[in-house]
Amino acid sequence: MRLWQEIGVDLGTATVLIYVKGKGIMLREPSVIAMVRDTGDVKAVGDEAYRMLGRTPGNIVAVRPMRDGVIADYDLTEKMLKAFVRKVVTGAGRFFKPHIMVCVPSGVTEVERRAVLQATREVGARKAFLIEEPLAAAIGAGVQIAEPTGSMIVDIGGGTTDVAIISLGGIVVSESMRIAGNEFDEAIIRYIRHKENLLIGDRTAEEVKMKVGAAVVVRPDDSHEIEVRGRDLINGLPKTIRVATEDTVEALKEPIKKIADGVRRVLEAAPPELVSDVIDRGIIMTGGGALLRNFDELLRQTTGIPVVVAENATDCVALGTGQALDMIPVLQDALISDTFLRR
User: Fold this and answer.
1) Where residue 326 falls among pLDDT bands split at 50, 70, 90?
2) pLDDT tens profile 45-57
3) Residue 127 — left, alpha, or beta (φ > 0 → left; ψ -120 to 50 → alpha)?
């Protein structure tokens, strides 16, 4: 019987998910930390800190220490991760350090990999491993990655979109774009500012995206409206407008086109045999961004290949990261372990 716990961490730009072996996903909280400006003491993490975003007094600051899928502030990321791991590590795990697998975007640099591994070791991991996000997403979506057939994954998270074709337990062709859910929110903010002279916040933009957002309007019943409040940029007073699905389609046109172009580039760079497999098996979409209404339909129109959204799209990376701990012999060439730090 193992006395240590095995943990998979989806260290996302927007949300942190932690999978504990034998228990499932035990934590799902925003990747936000609030701290006292003068002393650096941690005031809150996760849900509690998220509620403080944009609402803190002068001596408290609430920030996202992750940016574009990688660590932007090392010290704050370490403090946030330590607080999250402490919430899920129980019993014997407190005395016997856990094995932790963390996912990273496929395009991260060696410096960024070292930063994530170092932060994981500082949290108290007995062993630390890194796995690339599309590989973790494929495992979590139920793809048999060890087979000699090609599978295509489009993982759209908060900070990055990872597109990859996987075969024989590894990534054959991939592209990582720093365009994803957060960029969608910013595009909505820019569009409403330009069209209505109204300034809205990140949380309002995210609500618009989730409730009425779409990549394309396919049917008349795809169109919805939402009431949005913000500050009028002309007179500085509060103002309320209505935003329709068609507005979000227009706002998101540019970032969505960049993702579709990235999918096309990966297909063009892949060996013909693997492209043939992808045509037969279809493209699998994972991540929170995959839930944008009709995004799968737009990709199908762009590529001419069947597209499906994974059943547990938002959880795929976290589930796959945890399950990968049982697949280390299969994934040994694809994983990066903490021996990387000693080089």
Assistant:
1) confident
2) 999 998 887 777 7
3) beta
